[in-house]
Amino acid sequence: MSARIQLSDHFSYRRLIRFTLPSIAMMIFTSIYGVVDGFFVSNFAGKIPFAAVNFIMPLLMILATVGFMFGTGGTAIVAKAFGEGDPERANRTFSLFVYAAFALGVLFAVLGIGFIRPIASFLGAEGELLENCVVYARIILTALPFYVLQLLFQSFFVTAERPHLGLAVTVSSGVTNMILDGVLVILLPGPYKLAGAAVATAMSQVVGGAVPLFYFAGKNSSILRLGKTSFDGRALLKACGNGSSEFMSNVSMNLVGMLYNIQLLKFAGENGVAAYGVMMYVSMIFSGAFIGYSIGTAPVIAYHDGAGNHQELRGLLRKSLRMVGIFGLCMVASAELLAVFLAEIFVGYDPALMVLTVSGFRIFALSFLFMGFAIFGSGFFTALNDGLVSAIISFLRTLVFQMSAVLLLPLVWGIDGIWWSIVVAEVMAVLLSGMFLWLKRGKYHY
Questions:
Q1: Which residues of 413-422 are buried (b: 16+ CB within 10 A; e: fewer)?
Q2: Count of CB atoms within 10 A of residue 8's CB?
Q3: Are the C-beta atoms of residues 179 and 37 closer than 8 Å to each other?
Q4: Which of 270, 296, 398, 436 could in theory staple to 252 by disulfide, Cβ–Cβ 3.0 to 4.6 A?
Q5: Contact in structure between 199 and 139 (CB atoms under 8 Å)
Q6: For 127-154, what is each residue's pLDDT tens digit?
Q7: Which of 292, 285, 299, 366 has the alpha carbon at shortest distance from 323?
Q8: Which three-class secondary structure state does DSSP give residue 125?
Q9: Does residue 98 surpass a pLDDT of 80?
């Protein structure tokens, strides 16, 4: 058995791939079981329930994003404390982030359950679509505190030098969802199939959040322990600042998703929302690979920044940019080749919807060539505890560039303008990320 990789190691390409692969697989698998959920709903519950899931999902993801913020923002602080030789402070701060994230998850779940109907109605859902949104969302929200923890622990498993254990938890959560989907969605009567899919997802999120909670609370072989802590407003604000880019990226991405749905209802009705749902499922898998790589490299970057190993930091950046570029090329080629096959899996039962999905997907897939650079660039600055730059990249990439494009381009090209908008936004985000990497090279000595 090969020796365990530590944050303090020198990272060659091979070692970097070995260390980040569990995080990449973890994020891809998280996306895949969401895709399986969509497959069962679309093929066994129908087109309107499928549209409802995709219509309300951005809002649910916004509420859960606080876990991702404390995870990505907190790992930079905790890993840097280890790099500075203070493990006691690292574990005390880690515990604070876990408790704070869970408390916010409970608060958001309560508010969400109470206000989901007027929110969905405000966004444009009505009739059967509205009722399906409410049923699905209320069930999912009952598990929100655990989903918040699942997103948080996905980052901290890497800091704990246990990325493979994080992958195992994610696989367990995904398998739970897949099995329950297969049982509940297929076997329950028609009106209850959507509720069955929601129960399957909620139970998988409980598994994904509760298992690592018990692991870190007990005796374990990692460098992290969940235990006593004290309120530290400065640490919480620092984590929020560091993670604000990832928080803003996820919130903005889902706000833009809502805007896409509103535009698509206007230009193509419920078929447009369903077609966009297929693209989002595939995009979740591909972007999940980039996010997983960023999560995997963040503690390493933070450690070597804290230890002042500038040569190693420089090597990590250059190797990462090369690998992200290769990933992007492979993803575009795969997406173009598999466009018809992927559309047929989800909406093959509806010829008109099938044509709309394939034509849109072939344009949309070009964005995969560019998105990895901006995702990594934002994550790189988060790991350096430069939350401001990271937040600027994420904010402009998702909220400003994408929102502007999706509002303006359809006025010129109709529905094709909606598909092109994500490509245009990602190109602009790459240019912005490159500018900041160039401007900050002197400060961080990479």
A1: eebebbbbbb
A2: 13
A3: no
A4: 398
A5: yes
A6: 888 999 999 999 999 999 999 999 999 8
A7: 292
A8: coil
A9: yes
**Is the model more confident about 50 or about 369?**
369
- Contact predicate 255/58, CB 8 Å: yes
Contact 304, 313 (CB under 8 A): yes
Distance from C-alpha of 78 to C-alpha of 151, rounded to nearest angstrom: 16
Give the HSE-up count for residue 78: Cα atoms under 13 Å, Cβ half-sphere: 33
Of 178-182, 273-277, 333-337, the range with the lowest mean pLDDT is 273-277
SS3 label, residue 136? helix
> Torsion angle of alpha carbons 293, 101, 204, 271, nearest 10°?
-70
pLDDT band, very low/low/confident/very high, at 233 (cuts 50, 70, 90):
confident
Q: Residue 138 is encoded by which pair of tokens?
A: 């209320």
Three-class SS state of 190: helix
CA-based nearest residue to 203, from 172, 231, 167, 236? 172
Mean pLDDT value across residues 279-290: 84
The rounded Cα 175 to chain-centroid distance in angstroms is 19
The residue whose two tokens read 């047929």 is 344
Which tens digit of pLDDT belongs to each residue from 385-438? 887 888 888 888 878 898 899 899 999 888 889 899 989 999 999 999 999 999
Identify the pLDDT of residue 26.
78
Q: How far is CA 101 from CA 43, 111, 152, 158, 432, in A?
A: 35, 16, 8, 18, 31
Distance CA 380, CA 372 (A): 12
Count CB-CB contacts under 10 A for residue 370.
Answer: 23
pLDDT at position 28 is: 84
Q: What is the CA radius of gyration of the chain?
A: 21
**pTM attached to this predicted model:** 0.70
Q: Angle at Cα 446 formed by Cα 312 and Cα 315, nearest 5°?
A: 35
1, pLDDT greater than 60: no
Give the DSSP letter string of 64-95: HHHHHHHHHHHHHHHHHHHHTT-HHHHHHHHH
State the chain's mean pLDDT as an integer.
Answer: 87
- CA–CA separation, 337 and 5 (whole Å): 36
Q: Decide: 206 and 173 in contact? Cβ < 8 Å.
A: no
Backbone angles phi, psi at 303, to 5 degrees: -65, -50
